[in-house]
Amino acid sequence: MKLFNYLLLLLFTLSGCTQGLKTATSNLKDNQWTANKANNWQKNKGWLTGCNYIPATASNQLEMWQKETFDTVSINRELGLAKSLGFNSVRVFLHDLLWEQDSTGFINRAEQFLSIAHKHKIGTMFVLFNGVWDPNPKLGKQNTAKPNVHLSGWVQSPGAASLVDSASHYKLKNYLKGFVKHFENDKRIDAWDIYNDHDNVTGLAYLGLDPKNKAELSFNLLKKAILWIREVNPSQPITTSIWLRDLHEESKITPADKFILEASDLISFHNYDGNEIIEQKINQLKAYNRPILCTEYMARGNGSFFEKDLPVLKKYNIGAYNWGLVAGKTQANFPWDSWTKSYTAAPNIWFHDIFHKDGTPYNESEVEFIRKTTK
């Protein structure tokens, strides 16, 4: 059956036809959770609230996880801050090169992270692949991030070279299946997020460095990844986020988004455009009758605030993961336009993040609001 599913997926990839999409998606349902199972999962979990987390001492996924820079002291302190807000889950990015470098060490450090998070009564959603920012990741000492520039150290996984070279995808398969298999029954893991912003383009940040046909290549990899994880069949649900599109009209839904929505156990989306757009997206996605997660939100400079967004997410029982916790080397408190506009100091209105590196709140009233809302 697994071979049959793979051949069907290959046929779809080569033909690119709508019927191929429907056929491949229907066979992926062999191990897909039913809507009833997914909704029971949500009842047991309750309202998931948390953040996209990386310690303040790391500029990207590689620096977070490599042996030389894995900082359990900061992780423990910062997840303590997350707990103080009432957060009960964090979304955390991994990287395929870490598996290639030292799979045993990578697993051991992931175990340490999960133990620390669990101590603070926080679950984890791991993100396996990432499609945005620097397309040329390298192991070892990471490049110094550009001063005062938003996420200027963040890296894609896989990098452009691996994405283009389909013959090397067996390495990605080994990583995904190996990592997920190790944790397939681990109750400390809330869910698996397969591929963040798989077809997004980082714009002026890395102009011309992404493959010209990136959307097609990443969609093909996403389809493979779904099959790989279905073969493992972990006890935790899987999802991939819709990051931008308008889903109001069926004719506007892209083949990639249609595939994601039909192949996921949980429905997830990103929104940095404020509470009114969040509510629109929720109403559009409710039709799938599955739990919904907003896995990225809250960009103050873009009109997205906790005080407006979090009550809407709570009202509809939507999992809520804002971007950022403690300001640090990711420089996520600087806005997106820091790539084209010079900043000599942090803006008065932070873009992301909640705490200064020393643990003091960026905005005390905001922190109190979060705590009251998560009770």
Describe this structure in words.
- This protein is an alpha/beta fold and 375 residues long.
- Helix content is 42%, strand content 11%.
- The chain has helices at residues 2-15, 18-28, 35-45, 61-65, 72-84, 96-119, 160-164, 169-182, 214-232, 255-263, 275-285, 306-315, 364-374; strands at residues 49-52, 89-93, 123-130, 189-196, 238-239, 241-242, 267-270, 292-296, 319-323.
- The protein has a 9-stranded parallel beta sheet.
- Helix 9 links the parallel strand 4 (189-196) and strand 5 (238-239).
- The longest helix is centred in the first third of the chain and has 24 residues, at 96-119.
- It is globular, with a radius of gyration of 19 Å.
- The protein starts with a helix and ends with a helix.
Order of helices and strands: HHHEHHEHEHHEHEEHEHEHEH
- The counted number of beta strands is 9
Low-confidence parts lasting 5 or more residues at pLDDT below 50? Answer: 1-26
Task: Summarize the main sheet.
Answer: 9 strands, parallel
| Helix coverage percent | 40-55%
Overall morphology: globular
Mean pLDDT: 92
Strand content: 5-15%
Whole-number radius of gyration?
19 Å
Side-by-side strand order of the widest sheet: 5-4-3-2-1-9-8-7-6
**Class computed from helices, strands and strand pairing:** alpha/beta
